[in-house]
Amino acid sequence: MAEKETLRERFFRCGKLDDCPVYDLHGHMGPLEGACLPRCNPEDMIAAMDRAGVRLTVFCHHDALFAPDIGNAINLAEVRRFPDRFRAYCGINPNYPDQVARDVEMFDDNRDAYVGFKFLADYFQIPITDERSAPAWEKANTDHLPVLLHTWGGSSYDGPQLVRTCAERYPDAQILMGHSCHGAWKEAAQLAVDFANVYLELTAVLDDRGAVDLFVREAGSEKVIFGTDTPWFNHHYYIGALLGAEMNDDDRRNILYRNAQRILGDMLEM
User: Which of 98, 106, 225, 242 has the smallest CB count inside 10 Å?
Assistant: First the structure.
């Protein structure tokens, strides 16, 4: 009797697998000044997703990060154009606290499109613990929503200690550490161990050999989320790096889709 093929063997033979869908929980959309992003409109993003077997991308439009009054409307419009392929994070920019309050107030009216919130504290130079972001944190905590944070090792805005403070303060918010406190891999893994609501996310992690292996070994694959920062990085590269990492196929399935399905839950049906 022939041995059962591994996910790696099947992916390399077929390119994508219907029984192992991919959920990308860290995406963006739209052009950004000074960046070459040739596949940044939704149609081209969907074509790239189809080639790699990505079933759903959760994104925050670049404009929503820097001009949320404009960009969050684009988030909603694009999800409603392609509801089977996208969900969005509501972009939170604490430089505009009145806008934060309005976006949080309108969140429930847009549950068909939104799954949670996105913070980019290093760019705003406002810590994730700042009170101007509290309305979004409180909403996420009350409703058990995902919060995708940009996190970076050594940052005074979103480094490991600040993530720890937020995890303690908002124990029911589902904290996705975008970039997994980049470079501070052991500290990030320990956060995922210490807090049930904190997850490691793989954008810009898979270019560092051994980091995801450490995450699975220390925190378990149930605490690791697949993300690519699409359209910045390539799905195939990230999937391939995961297929070559030191873990078993059950771990890979957790990371590629099971954890996302569990976190998003009923929001996938809206």
Answer: 98
